[in-house]
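Consider the following assembly input.
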Amino acid sequence: MGNKLKVSTNLSCDVLVIGAGGAGLRCAAEILEKKPGASVLAVTKVAHPQKSHTAAAQGGVCAVDPSDLHDKPIYHMFDTWKGSDCSADQNVVKKIVETGWDQLMWLENRGMHFTRLQGGALGKRTFGGHTSGFGSVSSFRAVFDADRTGKSMMDTCWQEAVKGGVSFVPQSVVTELLFKEGRCIGAILFKEKDGEFVSVLAKATVLATGGCGQVFRITTNCRDNTGDALAVILRAGFPVMDPEAVQFHPTGIVGPGILASEALRSEGGILRNKDLEPFMEKYAPKMKELAPRDIVSRAMESEIRSGNGVLNPDHNIEHVWIDLRELPDYVHDVKLKEISGFFKTFVNIDPKKELCPVRSSNHYHMGGIPTTEFGEVQKTSDEIIPGLFAVGECASASFHGFNRLGTNSLLELFTMGKFVGERVVDYIKDGSLTELPKEAGEVTFSQFSKYLEASGKGNIGVIREEMRNLMTAKVGIFRKGNEMAEAMESLNELRKRAEVVALASKTTKMNQDLHQRWELDNLLDIAMITTKGAYERKESRGGHYRDDYTERSEEFDYHTLAYMTEYGKVDLGKRPIDMSIFEAGGEHCEHFKMIPRKY
Amino acid sequence: MADNYSITLDIKRYDPDTKKTWFQSYKLDAGRILRFVDLFRRINNEQDPSLAWGSSCEHGQCGSCAVRVNGKPLLACELLVENAVKDFGTTKFRVEPISIAPVVRDLVVDLEKAYEKVHRAKPYLIKRAPLPPQSSYYQLSPKEIERYEDATRCINCFSCADACISSHKNFIGPNAAMASIVRLMDPREEEKEERLKLLYSEEGIYRCHSSKACSFVCPKEIDVAHFIALAKEGAFRGDNGE
């Protein structure tokens, strides 16, 4: 190594956006529309914002079309509330649902591509958990671009960001947030390509780093979804909300873990066990394959647990089948061309003729950095950190509570992206840049020096895989107190093992081993608070399912706030669930009390 | 089909600290449906953590893992071991970075530089056409969209640019050209002149030699050459076209 680590460049800007996926760049675009000429830096971990994981979303994005006589915003609010297992915040639900269609139009008007009907209107499809008339009939609420809706949205977001003049900082990560008198004033970045540390002073900082699915072995999340902002927030002494609220998507393709969209089931795909029995009838007699994700996931895992799964020898993973053989050629070849093609591409199977192997896979984190309905980051349930905002999957406002409905995540990205952008513009109006604090970078350098100086045995990738296996086995779809206690012990050991591993190379320039070492620390942090949150929540709610506490309990009608300043020592706080729609007492308010979640 | 294959990967390495370039050979036993990204990961975990390679989504939707395997640009996340053995007729593979931008380390290239061309092509709507009266959005018939829809599936993996026989220095490149052509075909775009100026400029589509290498290698199976041909002909709009 030789040289002491240091900040090599000092930058400043009006707004620093960390994470340039759909949420981060929708926010950036809003800032530049409202305040043309503002200097906005958008940091992305990937090589270009277009590579962000938003682009992986497939089936659709929902919003209530005002011209649809069968649909109403109140129905969508109800579906979201019920789907969340009564733990979404109703102020946020109302705000997002009411603006959904207008914001969708913002995207369409700026060139987003959609699948259309003959007359030119937007085509629509139905998705699990979305209904009209408070659960009475399925609702056609999701618009889409074939099976690449996320890509089309991501393209529009980054294109608008380019048009508006956002400066991108690619292949870079945030390692430390900077504060002065309790206000966030910027961050330290690590630019991997150059191997350099950079300080950025900003009037406002927006965290938008996406999900953390790499905590689990079986996941649909990309290689880069390691929850970086969550770990940085924890290290700054602030909380992560509902870390235990993790969603498992029913149909990950066995092996690569690639998501096979819910659209496959809405088009008529049937789940079958090893005896080819269509088992969903047993678990959700009414909605069957279209029941919400957590219910379908647990049904699949139950089948596998009771010996009705099939073992894939190459990946040593048990799975069930999705039967797409009855779907018309038009669906395979046109409507769901890409997803149907995934099976051919990634497992060499022809879905028109053969059964396809699927397994419930970690998919989405409902929890995240706690924010207000404007995306302001909170340090406690009623106190914000001025200058710091969070949006997208890394944040939790909370629109999804303990279970997210399909197509609601893309909706959240661009609506909250807009709201946060507006709030940021307001915030920086009177803002000014401060001086760089003397201690800026200390946290980062102490962390990275340890990585570079370690001289023991081991392999970072191997430890990462062990952690992922552990989390899938013990903190996955079915959770139990004693197993999670064991998991926490194992995590402590894994972290100790990671600490001594000598890196293959001591350079800082595009050193993948160093990058993964840092990511591993982030993953281990998130794994720990997820496990602790799940351990203490002695009930089942949405995606969080306890074998030893199978029912929802009103004792836990709150959000978890998890703090961790020393590894393994997790302090838990609470944030109340907002029930303002119910409390307002208007028409239909009875649907917004704590209702049972049955489909 | 065999259950397992003994694979040799000769990977081109580059160390930016010493500026040295060399080929390094790695041997692995691999199951038939493992992908090349899985092999790279296994090399990191089992043999050599210092090997740097790019990937993100690992399901063919981000294009970060484009590499050259035995001379052909492709996505490493989509290349299954058994298909590679079948298609290339060998168990020995030469893996190199794509040639469209400077190498940062090993298989990782500086895509920021490569994307400059895409940005120059202005992939957004430069000037939005007025909305139809009483409508909050543009009404586009499936027939209209069909003409350019395939091109919207481009993920900018730059495989086409790598395969292109025109010089990277002088030609804006097939994917960047296509980004502009899509918007010329999109009825929502009003700015035509600026786009045509770029496409017919010194770095524009007349640099294309019509080899169709772009269409041949595109992992999304987009007929890139078709779109460039449309542009050469000026046939951006449908039958009633302008």
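The mean pLDDT of chain B is 94. Ask yourself how this observation constrains the way the partners meet.
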